[in-house]
Amino acid sequence: MFIEPSLSSRRQSERKGQIEVICGSMFSGKTEELIRRLTRAKLAKLKVEIFKPSIDKRYHDSDVVSHNENTIRSTPVHFAGDILLLTGDCDVVGIDETQFFDEEIVRVVQLLANQGKRVILAGLDMDFEGKPFEPMPRLMAIAEYVTKVHAICMKCGDLAAFSLRLSAAREKVVLGEKESYEARCRKCFLDDKK
Questions:
Q1: How far is residue 24's CA from residue 30's CA, in Å, rounded to a whole number?
Q2: Rounded CA gap, 182 and 31, in Å?
Q3: Is the model's pLDDT at 60 over the cut of 90?
Q4: 133 contacts 127 by C-beta, under 8 angstroms
Q5: Which of 50, 54, 162, 187 has the most neighbouring CB atoms within 10 Å?
Q6: What's the family (predicted)?
Q7: What is d(CA 183, CA 99) in angstroms, rounded to the nearest whole number?
Q8: Rounded to whole angstroms, how far apart are CA atoms 66 and 84?
Q9: 99 is in an annotated binding site
């Protein structure tokens, strides 16, 4: 279980920046955990800013929405660098669907943490082929905390770490939900890829 850092230090001179990564497959609860952590930061009266890539309009144009339909206000951005312009004096920065940003997100996240901000990221760690989904591996390497969450395999009911694409599309990024993807354990994922 993730033990949150102290939420009490509000003065900029006392804050220590850090990076937290929440990763896993589709339907594993990444966004749910991101919303939980950001909501707790708000309850602690910290200034929170939340972002998502503008291409992700699956549930809502601007809000971050989990598969369980929990929601939190966010700002969609086209480029990772836009986040730097919009964080101002906030204490906590949340970013959902981080895998959809380019490599610039790594520099942006490091700059934010170096400014004393708590940066919480959620994203897929592997693509539909079971390969590392950049830039998530680089973000995991520089993070102070990495939480890997698991879904339930829709074929056998075991813990799942893979996202099986149900269509024949070969592009790396294909937005979709339950009609396009299912969570799979390693064995079922490999069996279905044959």
A1: 7
A2: 17
A3: no
A4: yes
A5: 162
A6: Belongs to the thymidine kinase family.
A7: 17
A8: 25
A9: yes
Paired tokens of 67: 């598969």
Q: Is pLDDT larger for residue 166 or for residue 56?
A: 166
| C-alpha to C-alpha distance for 65 and 58, rounded to whole angstroms | 9
Catalytic site positions:
97
Q: Edge-to-edge strand order for the sheet containing 75-77?
A: 75-77, 48-53, 92-95, 118-124, 18-24, 145-149
| CA–CA separation, 178 and 192 (whole Å) | 16
8 among the known binding-site residues? no
Give me 168's structure tokens: 């024949």
User: What architecture does CATH give domain 18-150?
Assistant: 3-Layer(aba) Sandwich (3.40)
Domain ranges (residues) in the chain: 18-150
Q: Is the pLDDT of residue 172 over 80?
A: no
Q: Where are the beta strands (DSSP E) in the chain?
A: 18-24, 48-53, 64-65, 71-72, 75-77, 92-95, 118-124, 145-149, 151-152, 159-160, 162-165, 181-184
